[in-house]
Write a structure and sequence with these properties.
Blueprint: H1 18-24, H2 28-36, E1 42-43, H3 44-51, H4 55-67, E2 72-76, E3 79-83, H5 93-105, H6 112-136, H7 140-144, H8 150-165, E4 170-176, H9 184-190, E5 191-198, H10 201-213, E6 219-223, H11 230-233, E7 237-243, H12 252-262, E8 263-274, H13 281-286, H14 295-304, E9 308-316, E10 322-329
InterPro entries: ArsR-like_HTH, HTH_ArsR_DNA-bd_dom, Methyltransf_11, SAM-dependent_MTases_sf, WH-like_DNA-bd_sf, WH_DNA-bd_sf
Pfam families: HTH_20, Methyltransf_11
Protein name: Metalloregulator ArsR/SmtB family transcription factor
Length: 334
């Protein structure tokens, strides 16, 4: 554990700010809750399922942890989810205490039964997303354009990628969630090899037709999720792209972990996605699991995955939505 500088002794009632944090974390169950929420965001009903306890009891623990600053509620439409607070800087004594608690609990391996229940919830979310795309595969473009036209995010992403390539072709690129395959034409043009992975068989079929129609012969389409590529493709890609994907996946933070494992040193992860919004209709009409993300969330997930944050571009849309185009880089090994 890294040592930290002592906090000034003349701060008024300095130790008083530690009491709520230490009291709230002085319970094994609450520490397990914090461990479970390392990267995930869960609602009270989901956490009750994971820990096999009554909702009222779980709500009490979440309230205590939230009041102590160890958790923060996040509204998603009509539902409340809980996550660990996003802190880029650890400045106050309370912040340091919270950081130390997280650092300690993250060293503890999750029991198998908790991991299994978390995976069950992730699978349920994934099934929900897959079912939507299976029902609406033929109307995919129309559904997506309720929020943003493809060109509105694809063009700035392509410009950013071209800028990073500096006139060179990428050796190998990966697109997570290619949808109908519209962006694969761009990746196929600027990359020697492209892998595209999607958990929707229906969308992969449409992407395959798109590749055939445009004569792309350097694209490999795989059914599944990014984490299942690690064994065969670890440290294989110079570029990973995820366009408007995060708000459809069960655990968005995992995309950053997977990308970090799949990228070569010096590789780039480029993401376009929605900023946080309150348009709950997008869940039913567009198959969204999440109502966008705060830019700080993406930066925190990238930092936890060992990636450096690069350029950021915000695109305001006339319908009130805002898109963020983000660049992250995997540092060179020392």
């Amino acid at each position: 554990m890294n040592s930290i500088a002592p906090f000034p002794a003349d701060q008024p009632a300095a130790l008083d700010v530690l009491a709520p944090v230490l009291k709230a974390s002085g319970d094994p169950l609450r520490l397990e809750i914090l461990r479970v929420l390392q990267r995930d965001t869960f609602g009270v009903l989901e956490l009750s399922r994971i820990f096999d306890m009554r909702q009222s009891g779980m709500s009490h623990h979440l309230k205590v942890l939230s009041q102590a600053g160890l958790l923060e509620p996040q509204r998603e439409g009509n539902a409340i989810f809980y996550r660990r607070p996003l802190r880029a800087n650890v400045e106050s004594l309370a912040d340091r205490a919270v950081h130390q608690v997280f650092e300690l609990v993250d060293q503890v391996v999750l029991p198998a039964h908790l991991s299994e229940r978390i995976q069950e919830i992730r699978d349920q979310r994934a099934d929900q997303s897959q079912a939507f795309f299976a029902r609406h595969a033929e109307q995919f473009r129309e559904q997506q354009e309720l929020i943003a036209a493809f060109e509105q995010y694809a063009e700035p992403v392509a410009e950013l990628i071209a800028q990073k390539a500096a006139g060179q072709r990428w050796r190998a690129s990966l697109e997570i969630g290619p949808g109908e395959g519209a962006f694969l034409a761009e990746l196929g043009r600027i990359s020697e090899q492209v892998v595209a992975v999607d958990n929707s068989r229906d969308m992969l079929s449409k992407a395959r037709i798109s590749c055939e129609d445009t004569g792309l012969d350097n694209i490999r389409l795989l059914e599944g999720t990014a984490d299942r590529l690690r064994d065969e493709h670890r440290a294989s890609f110079d570029l990973v792209v995820a366009n408007m994907v995060l708000h459809h996946v069960p655990s968005p933070a995992d995309i950053f972990v997977d990308a970090a494992a799949l990228m070569r040193d010096g590789g780039y992860l480029v993401i376009s996605d929605l900023c946080s919004h309150d348009q709950n209709w997008a869940k039913a009409n567009c198959g969204d699991l999440w109502l966008g993300f705060e830019p700080e969330e993406l930066s925190a997930w990238a930092r936890d995955a060992g990636l450096e944050t690069g350029e950021t571009l915000f695109i305001g849309l006339r319908n009130g939505f805002q898109i963020q185009v983000r660049e992250f880089r995997k540092p060179e090994s020392q």
